[in-house]
Amino acid sequence: MKIAIAGAGPAGSYLGALLSGKHEVEIFEGQVQERFTSICGWATAYGGARDLLKKIGLNFDDYILHRGREMSVSAFDSVYRISAPELVTFDKPKMLRDIAKGLKVNYGSFVRTGDLEGKYDMVIDATGPYRRLLGPTENPTDMILPTFQWLVKYKELPFDDFYIEPFNSFSGYLWYFPLGDHEAFVGAGDVWKKHQSRVEDFLKRYPPTERIRTMGKPIRVAAPRSVFPHRKGRVVGVGEAIGTVYPILGEGILPSMYAAEMLSDSLKDLDSYQRQILSKFSAYDLSYDYIRRKMSHTDNFFNSFIPAVRIFLWFKRNFMITGVNPSLWETFKVLRPRMKN
Questions:
Q1: CA atoms 325, 330, 334, 336: torsion sign
Q2: DSSP count for the chain of H helices, then E strands
Q3: Is the dihedral of CA 203, 189, 216, 263 positive or negative?
Q4: How far apart are CA 284 and CA 44, in angstroms?
Q5: 140 vs 143, 171, 175, 228, CA distance in Å?
Q6: Which terminus of the chain has fewer Cβ atoms in its 10 Å neighbourhood, N or C?
Q7: Burial class of residue 147 (count of CB atoms within 10 Å of its CB; 0-12, 13-18, 19+)
Q8: What is the pTM of this model?
Q9: pLDDT digits (tens, 9 = 90+) for 173-213
Q10: Which residues pair with 96 in a beta bridge?
Q11: What are the structural domains of the chain?
Q12: If 0-12 CB within 10 Å is exposed, 13-18 middle and 19+ buried, where does residue 234 land?
């Protein structure tokens, strides 16, 4: 097949690598090659990333910047230290460039609906929150979270490991992710658009030696069932474009790569691909519904307590994907399920 992929992020580049040698693949990336980067916190789970990269001949250890031990979560006037044995930060731009080596990548090519469909057998929309080829979602519950972060340098680090501050409104959270060499990302995402002020408040409390640069982009926190359509004509979505960001953590790197793997195995049966997406990421829909009820103050004992238990069980089974391993008590303290009506 002759396949075009729009976007060279985790979903697009990994899919291109999986399909290389089996199909004629061409990637279109809007960023120019000299300034190609990835605007996010560069954090993911070690075990999951290691296993995925091994399939395309790369060693994830080559990209590690910081290996985590625990994550401090400051929520509701308390600090909880959650075990995070698999959580790492890594050089994501370098990893993406290495994944794309040997592939035909057209950097600086900004594509829109109609640009590619008539020239390829299949066109993949891997443009994340923008859905440049699939177009807007049909569901009014789709949710895009604006984010902003500083790359900063400290003489003495305020925290030597991961630190986050979930907002009481469940509208987002602030993060501090160490990157090694006394550098860190300090950022926040907030549905109510108070993310930049949250970052500034943190940097006033913990002033860095140097503010190196800012970056920001929206992320989609809506789960797959709120991000239809996943397909339109010859265009097929993958990754964040169809909702593969875990709503509670805001992590979409590994999930997007898993979605790419599903698509690579199901090119001849796209109905099967969609069924796999909805099944694999059903826990994301559960978490997304939980957060939306919290934000709208429509939660009660029946629609929050049992889902919180299910979210905890999902974390226990999938810490190789999330990187964190909270106890039931820690999960309840952060999620705050209603214990009674």
A1: positive
A2: 10, 17
A3: positive
A4: 17
A5: 8, 17, 28, 10
A6: C
A7: buried
A8: 0.95
A9: 999 999 999 999 999 999 999 999 999 999 999 999 999 99
A10: none
A11: 2-335 (3.50.50.60)
A12: middle
